[in-house]
Amino acid sequence: MGAQFLVLGLLGIADDNNERVVLPPSRSATLLAALLLAPNEVVPVGYLKRVIWGDRLPTTARATLQTYVSRLRALFGKFGLSRDLIETVPGGYRLGVPSDLVSFTELTRSADGATDPETELDLLRRAQNLWHGELLANVDSELLHRDAVPKLQAQWLAVVQRRFALELQLGRHRGAITDLRALTEAHPAHEPFWALLAQALAGSGRRTDALTACRAGRGHTDGGELRRLEADILADAPQRSDAFPADLPQFVGRSAEIDALRAHVAANLSGPAIVVLTGPPGIGKSALAVRIGHLLAENFPSRGFVSLPQGRVPDTGDGPRLLVLDDAADAEQVAPLLTGRRGDLIIVTSRNCLPALSINHGARVIRLAGLVETESHELLGTLLDTQRVQAEPDAVGELVEVCSGFPIALRIAAARLALRPKFPIAGYVTALRAAPATMLALQDVSVAELFGEFLDADAALICAAPAAELTPEHWAATTLERLVAHNVLEQCAPARYHVPEIFRLLAAG
């Protein structure tokens, strides 16, 4: 490998055997640090003088600087490096030598372009491991410690933050807790480390500890991110029967469904209005039910949210109430709970259509499909940088098509892209088509796992079939009807069925 200079810690040099030599403080060492911090760039003489002497320049500064350059060239020779690596160019000097900073930059750039989270994580770990000790503690330069060192520290913080976000994305919550605790102790004012620690604790089932971490971090930071995370952790906790969840941020679309629900309520003032929100996993049924609860808060001061099957319908006293029965498996499960009073609104969410509730209880069934194209674009625009979305309209359109407008898929895609601000959206779409299960997974959420329980063998086989074969001529009509009732297929004509692209992609994979 050859000798390598070290700047990401104590200034030094590692020889062929990786034996490290820390350079003692000196003005020539300060000069070396300044050149190493700008690899392969021309560093002006005037800047180098200020780095070494500050504002008190000796009259012999230029000649003395040349002496220090000669000393560095002699040092290079001791380690088997060419003395000519320090180039004298008009107005300054340029240094192009192997260094840990150069390796760090190359690794982070490679991580930016990685399409596989494991590869990206490995690159970030290697980049993080290049750092050793306090930055340039053996370099005496007020200018470098004021300007250059904070920039390096910011780069290190960003890499470590990305690294542990990926660790959590890949489900390694417990293994990250110890390191993240150490990071919050070493950098208590860096709010993202507290947020990552809280997420790791929550992902390990330690919600109380996660909330404690949020509150501890708020004592050291401005706390904005931690307050939002604390609310998310509380909202994600198993719902008490008498608690109504917070509204989902960045909620878009569903105006037609909301209007249909309002109309059903208005038409059923004499008794309880019952609505079934049905659709496949990740389509936004629960989010829409919660949004409706907040939109109609003035009409229904008493609101309850029951997570089935274990939930209990609360006694909310007199007055109109809004009750959400979330994630019903079948009609039999919710029928005993439909003891609504006049003026009540009961919303049932289910992956199945529950036709018995319509037949026996007069329920209005509202089937949720994917967000339309404009709504999907709007959602991505709220989750990603607007300019980034506008810069790749074709790629965004293809991403929307691949995700079939499913909010869960769009949110995961946006979160993955947000972690890679320099990665093209088009590149992500290409990777998504090649490895949908991998590219639509984030932290504890995986679209493939979500749909894996939903798509049985018949459904997976049908979703993978060519579109021309989705007719009763090729498949038993009873099977097709069952899959329509379970929201796997959408019937678009008497003998024609549609499969969302996201189902087809995952089934083919």
Describe the structure.
This protein has 24 helices and 15 strands. By secondary structure, the protein is an alpha/beta fold. The chain has a 5-stranded parallel sheet with strand order 8-9-10-7-11, with helices on both faces. The protein has a 3-stranded antiparallel sheet with strand order 1-2-3, with no helix packed on it. Strand 1 (4-6) and strand 2 (12-14) form a beta hairpin. The chain is elongated and about 95 Å long. Mean pLDDT is 83; it is low at 237-242.
Tell me about the biggest sheet? 5 strands, parallel
| Estimated structural class | alpha/beta
Count of β-strands: 15
Mean pLDDT: 83
Topology diagram in text:
Layout: E1 4-6, E2 12-14, E3 20-22, H1 27-36, E4 42-44, H2 45-53, H3 61-78, E5 86-89, E6 92-95, H4 100-113, H5 117-128, H6 142-169, H7 173-186, H8 191-203, H9 207-218, H10 224-236, H11 255-266, E7 273-278, H12 285-295, E8 302-307, E9 321-328, H13 331-334, E10 345-350, H14 355-361, E11 364-367, H15 373-383, H16 386-391, H17 393-403, H18 407-418, H19 425-434, H20 436-439, E12 441-442, E13 445-446, H21 447-452, H22 457-463, H23 477-485, E14 490-493, E15 496-498, H24 501-508
Parallel strand pairs: 7-10, 7-11, 8-9, 9-10
Antiparallel strand pairs: 1-2, 2-3, 4-6, 5-6, 12-13, 14-15
